[in-house]
UniProtKB/TrEMBL annotation:
InterPro entries: BolA, BolA-like_sf. This is Bola-like protein. Residues 85-108 are annotated as: Disordered. One of its GO terms (cellular component) is mitochondrial matrix. It comes from Parathielavia hyrcaniae. Pfam families: BolA. GO terms for biological process: [4Fe-4S] cluster assembly. Belongs to the BolA/IbaG family.
Length: 108
């Protein structure tokens, strides 16, 4: 039986293997974009994703380098017909995630 979410499964597998994330949240936002003109006739339900990734692998890398790293991991999914059309990324180190969490809860 074929997986119901092959693109999401590939994202999870590749990012987990390469980055060993402490946080990996994958949001499939494809349904929010199905009515857009470029999506007309596309039958895939896995075209638009938001990823939140926390990993030590991002230490000493600026955001553009972090994003290039993720794009390189997902190059096949980005290139394939019916694959990823849009990818929104939030990439953090564990320290950045802790600081953000503290700010959101109002503790320092």
């Amino acid at each position: 039986m074929a997986a119901q979410t092959p693109v999401e499964d590939a994202i999870r597998q590749k990012i987990t293997a390469a980055l060993n994330p402490t946080t990996l949240d994958i949001y499939n936002d494809s349904h929010l974009h199905a009515h857009h003109k470029p999506m007309q006739g596309v039958t895939s339900t896995e075209t638009h994703f938001r990823l939140v990734i926390t990993s030590e692998a991002f230490k000493s890398k600026m955001q553009p380098a972090r994003h290039r790293l993720v794009y390189s991991l997902l190059k096949d999914e980005l290139a394939q017909e019916g694959g990823i059309h849009a990818l929104q990324l939030r990439t953090m180190t564990p320290e950045e995630e802790a600081k953000r969490s503290a700010q959101e809860t109002g503790t320092n």
